[in-house]
Amino acid sequence: MSELMDTVRAGHKGQTVRLLDTMTDAERRAHMPELKALRKELRATRWDAPGRRAYPSLYVAGIVCQTGASAVAAWIAASDMRWPSTSPALLLRLLGDRPAEWLGDLAQRLAQRPVSSGVSYPLMSGLVRLAGCPVPTTEAYVRGWVDDLEVNRERGGTLLDRLRSDPHLEPMVGALFETNDIGGRLIWSADKGPDGWIGALALVCAEGRLDRKVVVDACVARLLRGGTTADSRAFLSLLTALDLTREERRERVGDWQGLASDAPSTVAAHAQSVLGELALAGELPPRQLAEMSEAVLFRAEKKLVRAQLVLLGKALARDGSAADTLLPAVAHGFGHQDPDVQERSLKLAERHLRKVTDPGVRADLVLASEQLHTGLRSRAADLLGSAPAAPEPEAHEEILPPFPEPTRLAPPPATAAEAAEEIGAALAAQPSVAEFERALDGLVRLAHQDREGLSQALEPVFARCWWDGAGQGDARSAESRFLRSGGGVYRASDGLEIPLAALRGSIRTGHLLKAVRESGTHRGCQHRPLAEVFEARLWEVAYRIRTEPLPFLLSTPSWSTGLLEPDELVDRLDAYRRLGARVAETDFAQALLRVRRADPVRAAAAAERAAALGTAEGARLAAWLTAETPWPTSKRRTHATRLLIDHGEVADLRDDSFPAAFRLLGEPMDAGRDWYCYHDTGLLRQWPALMPERRELTAARMVRDMAALALHDVRGTGAVLPQLAECGGEAGEATHLCLAYGLGARHPEDRLAAVDALLTLAADDRLSAERLGTEIRLLTRTGALKPARLAESLRTAAATGAYRTVWEVLGHALPPLLAGLAFAGTPMRGLGDLVGVAAECAERCGARGELPHLDQAADRRGSSLLVTQARRLRDTLALPGTPSQ
C-alpha cells in the first residue's frame, strides 16, 4: 500500500495535504482507484467503526486526485462526504492551480446541486472569484448568498453596507425574486432599517445602486406569480417600503386588478387600496372599477368584499352617472354566501337605483336578485318592481354518494420476487388493510413453499431494516425493541417486521415462544385489546415460521374492509385438513372475528359445510356462524370536556375457546382511565378490519382519539372514520360520537374525512340525524367542539347535495343551543355560522314549520351574523307550502 493511502487510512489530514502538494497530476490520478475502493469499504462498515476517522483525509484526497470537474463536484456533494470538516479555504488553495475555465465549470456544477446537498457557499463563491466567471443564480447559490450576508459580520457594518460592497449585487437581487420559498429568510428580522433585508433593499434602490423600475416590476411579478405566505409577506413588505409614486401605481392598473382578484388576502387588500385611491381620485375609469369589483365580490374573504362595497358606495356617491356601469357589479354581491354581504349589496342598490338610466340594468338586477336568500327576495321585488318568486318550494331530491363498494383482495403473490416486492412496498409506507394482509399472507406462503428463495429475494429489504445491519443483526437488540411494552408494535409496518425478523433469525426462538405465551397478559390504553389481537397473530405466525411454517393464513380477508366470506374460510379449513397442517390458534380466532355472519342464508350454508369437515375447527366455525351476536350494555360518561363511552362485557368474546388476547375484547371497558398511548395513526387504520361486523366495539375504543382531534393539536387520526363508516354492524352511540368529534376536528383533512364518513353512513341508511345532532349539541355546550369548524364541515357535506340530511342533523342540534340565548348575554362564537348552514339547507330542501327557540335569536337587536341568519331561517321556515320529501 502506498504512503498516501496509509496516511488517508490513519486520518492524518495535514500529512495527506503535504503529500498531495508534492505529487504530479499523473501520480494523483493513479491513486483514484484505491481511494474509490476505500470509500466503498467505509460505506459497508458500521457508522461508529474506527475507519470513520479516515473520512476527512479521504474527502480531501478524492477532490485533489480527480481531474474532471463533474467527478470533483459529485465527490464534494456526495451524501457520505457531507460531514467531514474541511475548510473551504484549504480546498480553494488545493484547487487554485487549475485553469479558470475548469474552476468556473466546477462552480456552476456545485451551484446546480440541490440545497439539501449542503455544498458550502464560501467554496462556491471562492471558485467564482478565482475563475472570474459570471455568478451562478441557482437556488442553492442564492440561499447561500443570503445566509452569508446575514451571518458574515467579519466585513463589519450593516447589511446595507455589505450589499453596497457586493460586486454581484444586481444579478443576485434579480435571482432573489426567482427563488421559491425565500420570503422566510427576508423577513426573519423585524428591523426595517439598514440591517434588515426589506429596509436594506429599499435603500440600495433609493441610492441608485439598483434600477428602481426593475425592482418594482420584479416585486409585482413575484406577487402575481404567487407562492408561500412568507413569500407574499416579504415581497409585499418590500413593495410597500419602495413607496410607489402615483404615476408608478397608475402604470400598473392591470397588475393591481390581477392581484385583487387572485392574490392572497393581504396582497389583495393592498391592491384593492391602491385601486381605491385611483378610483376616488378619478384616475380609474368606472368600467375598470366594475371589472375589479366583479372579481373581488366573488372572493370568500368578508373583509375584502365589504371593503369593496364601501368603495363602490363612495364611487357612486362621487359620480352618479357611473350607476349604469357600477350597479351590475354590485349585483354580484347578491350571490355571495354571506347573507350580510347580500344585504349590504341590496342596500347599496336601493340607495343608488334612482340614478340608473339604462332599462337593461334594471333587468339585470331583477335576474341577479334570484340569488338572494329567501328573506331578501321580496324586498328586492318591491325595490325593482318585479313579481316575487313563487313561494311553493320545488320538490327536493336528496343527492347522496353511493355507498363505497369494497374491493376484493388480489390473489396472493405467486413467487418469492413478487412477495419481496409487496413486503418492501408495505414497509416503505404505512400500508392499507389490503396491502398489509397481502404482504403478510405472501410472506407466510413463500416461507412455507420456498424459504431459501424468499430469503434471497428479501435481501434488499433486510438491508434497509434497522435490526438487520447488513447481515450483522443483533438478536438481543431486536428482541428488546420488539418486545418492549408487550409487543412494541407502534406502526403497521412494525407488525410486518416481526415475522420478517423471525425469518431472518434476528429474534431467537425462545423469545418468540415467550411472546406467544404472554399475548393477552398486558394492560394499557383503550386500544390495548385491539393491539393485543393485532400483535398476537403476528407473534404466533413468526413463531410458526421458525418452527412449523403455515401453508397460508386462514384469516386473510376477502375484502378491503377486512370481511371474510364464510365459504372461503371453509375452503381454507378443508385445505388444511387435506394437508394435515396444524391450525394456528390466533389465526383461526382472527378468521372467526372477520367471517361474514350478517347474511343468514350464506352463513347457514357455510356452517353445514364446516360441520361436515369433521375437524374441531370446522365444528367451531359452524357453531359461530349460527350463533346470535350479543350486544353489550353501554353507558356515557363525562371526562373533563369530553364525552366518552363505557361498555359492558361482550359474552361471546369471553368464551374460553378464544385465545387470551382475543378474550380482552370482551372485557368491560372503562373509558375514564387515562393511559399513555404510543400507537401510530397508521396502526389505528388496521383495527376496523379486526371486527368488520362489530363497528361499535371498535369505535368505542377510538372515541378518545377522535376527541383529541377536536380538543388537541392532533392530526391524521380522522382518516380512520371512513373505514368505520364502511364497516358492518350497528352504528350506535360510539360511532356517532366519533363522527361528531371528527366534524369538529382541528385540521381540515380530518374534518373532510369525517364528512366522508357522514355521507357514507347516510348512503347506507345507518346515520341517525337525531343522535348525531344530540352529540353535536352536547359537545358544543361542553366546549369540546367549536361551532365554526362544525359549520365548515356540515356546509361541505351539504354542498354534495345532502341538504336534507344536514338540515335534519342541525334541526336536532340547534334548538338547545339557541335556548341558551335567553340566559346568556353573548352567544357562543360561531353559532351564527351554524345557523347560516341551517338556513341554506332549509332553503334548498324546502323545509317548513317551526324551530324551537329560533325567535330568541331572530328577535335580538343589531345585525350580527347570528341575528341575520336566524331571521333568514325563520323567514324560510315560515313560507307557505308543503315541505318536500
From TrEMBL:
Listed Pro residues bias regions: 401-414
Residues in DUF7824 domain copies: 433-609
Location of the region described as Disordered in the Swiss-Prot/TrEMBL record: 387-415
Protein name: DUF6493 family protein
UniProt source species: Streptomyces doudnae
